[in-house]
Amino acid sequence: MHIGPVVDLRNYKEYYERFARDLGSEPRCMEFHIINSDLTQDLNAKMKGINEFLRDKNVAVSFHCPDHPLNDLTKTRLENKNPDYNKLTILFDALQEIKQKKFLVMHQGFIANKSEIEAMNIEELIELKKTIKNIASKEMNILKSKLDENTEILLEQSPVFAGANKLVHITDQCLEDFANRPFRMVQDISHIALLVSYFQQNKITDLKNKSVIGKMTEQSEARDINEQSKGIALNWMEALKKEYNGLPSSLNSIEEYLKLAKDKTAWFHLSDANGIYVTNEGLIIGAEKSTINWKSIVELIKNKEFGVLEIIGCEKDYTRIQKSLKYLKISCPQLFTQQS
Ligand SMILES: [Zn+2]
Predict the structure, then answer these.
(1) How many A from CA of 269 to the centre of ligand 1?
(2) What is the DSSP letter of 282?
(3) Phi/psi zone of residue 163: left (φ > 0), alpha (ψ -120 to 50 degrees), beta?
(4) 30: nearest Cα among 105, 96, 89
(5) Alpha-carbon span 92 to 146, nearest angstrom
(6) Distance, CA 224 to ligand 1 centroid (Å)?
(7) Ligand 1 center from residue 310 Cα (angstroms)
(8) How far does residue 206's CA lie from ligand 1's centre (Å)?
(9) CA of 159 relative to ligand 1 center, distance in Å
(10) Residues contacting 138, CB < 8 A, separation 6+
């Protein structure tokens, strides 16, 4: 796999140079994170600059679309209003300045207020999710038609929470949610880990409840279960079990998700995770209490082409990328055998 950095419009030249030094060769992929405040008329000129920069390099690029304009589209449709494409049009026009093939990473999953979602029963929630998925697929066709033929949209799966855990993602989590959509995907290892962890803490709670009722648990087992059991039930996650007649297969383990998604995957986001909340995602690889078995993940992904180190806060602190790269180089050298 080729490993690359996540950069932004301000730091990309510097990060490219630093990453090349740390990697020992020029990176062959990188991802530009575009934020809301980048969506101004200056974006065209900035993209021209990036195109110049890329010209003498052999680097695959992706651009991460900000989530808010996408979410706003779905929201206005839900309210039966006409959506405003202005912000996204700025991005799409500017992307035409990038002459090589590029990916556009989109998080189409719908973000809602946690309190509003929690007030719904599971049936209402499933209905809402169906409506949102319908709107989202229509929107995606509209958006696709506004892009040039050099741009491939990649969909990314959503984690459990958003914002400061006061917002939640209610669609686009398990792989099964993407099955009938004509787009390839970005697999975000950290997001998958959060989703899988939710159902694992859930299983522990289920087991605890069962064993208390059955009164047949060994003492030590009961203690282990008690210690680990901080299980919570979240209705937007529990809804998945109802929608798919039980836990969707992809959420059994990170490994299972990746195996099932093999042919649909074009790009990876790599970072660590150690729980289910916002603060547990996007961590420096090698994080304490990590819920990701990197050795087994690397075996599954090493022959894929591209993975970028998407560590939260890396736009201000390059060392987060540097530390993650160092961890992978030492612990999982086989990840780099394709690198040349
Ligand atoms: Zn990601």
Answers:
(1) 5
(2) S
(3) left
(4) 105
(5) 7
(6) 33
(7) 6
(8) 30
(9) 9
(10) 77
User: pTM above the 0.85 mark?
Assistant: yes
CA of 219 relative to ligand 1 center, distance in Å: 41
Map out the domains of the chain as residue ranges: 2-193+257-336
CATH fold of the domain at 2-193+257-336: TIM Barrel (3.20.20)
For residue 162, report the distance from its CA to the centre of ligand 1, in Å.
Answer: 12
> How far is the centre of ligand 1, averaged over its atoms, from the C-alpha of 156 (Å)?
7
The DSSP 8-state label assigned to residue 272 in this structure reads B
Residue-wise pLDDT tens for the chain (340 aa)?
A: 999 999 999 999 999 999 999 999 999 999 999 999 999 999 999 999 999 999 999 999 999 999 888 999 999 999 999 999 999 999 999 999 999 999 999 998 899 999 999 999 999 999 999 999 999 999 999 999 999 999 999 999 999 999 888 999 999 999 999 998 999 999 999 999 999 999 998 665 555 555 444 444 444 444 444 444 457 899 999 999 999 999 999 999 999 999 999 999 999 999 999 999 999 999 999 999 999 999 999 999 999 889 999 999 999 999 999 999 999 999 999 999 765 5
From the CA of 234, how far away is ligand 1's center (Å)?
22
